[in-house]
């Protein structure tokens, strides 16, 4: 019974975290150079996720 409640709470927290990340939008924009190089090595999804999280790519213009 406790494991059910713990899993329910964890799932709710994960959903809330995903909504917060999506609402902020991507932190950095991917560059063409980065897209081409990561596509050659087969790492394009990882590169795009890193750009979304703000670890790679060019900084986003603040409007």
Alpha-carbon Rg, integer: 16 Å
**What is the succession of H and E elements?**
HEHHE
The number of helical elements comes to 3
Number of strands: 2
Compute the separation of the termini in Å: 49 Å
Biggest β-sheet strands, sense, barrel: 2 strands, antiparallel
Secondary structure: helix percent: 55-70%
User: How much strand?
Assistant: 5-15%
Low-confidence stretches: none
Bulk shape: elongated
Quick check: average pLDDT? 85
- Secondary-structure class: mainly alpha
- Main sheet strand line-up: 1-2
Structural write-up:
The longest helix is centred in the N-terminal third of the chain and has 23 residues, at 2-24. Helix 2 (32-40) packs antiparallel against helix 3 (44-53). This protein is mostly helical and 63 residues long. It is elongated and about 50 Å long. Helices cover 67% and strands 6% of the residues. The mean pLDDT is 85. A two-stranded antiparallel ribbon has the order 1-2. The termini are far apart. It contains 3 helices and 2 strands.
List the helices and strands and how they pair.
Blueprint: H1 2-24, E1 28-29, H2 32-40, H3 44-53, E2 58-59
Antiparallel strand pairs: 1-2
How do you describe this structure in short?
The chain is mainly alpha-helical and 63 residues long. The protein has 3 helices and 2 strands.
Characteristic terms for this protein:
63 residues; mainly alpha; 3 helices; 2 strands; 67% helix; 6% strand
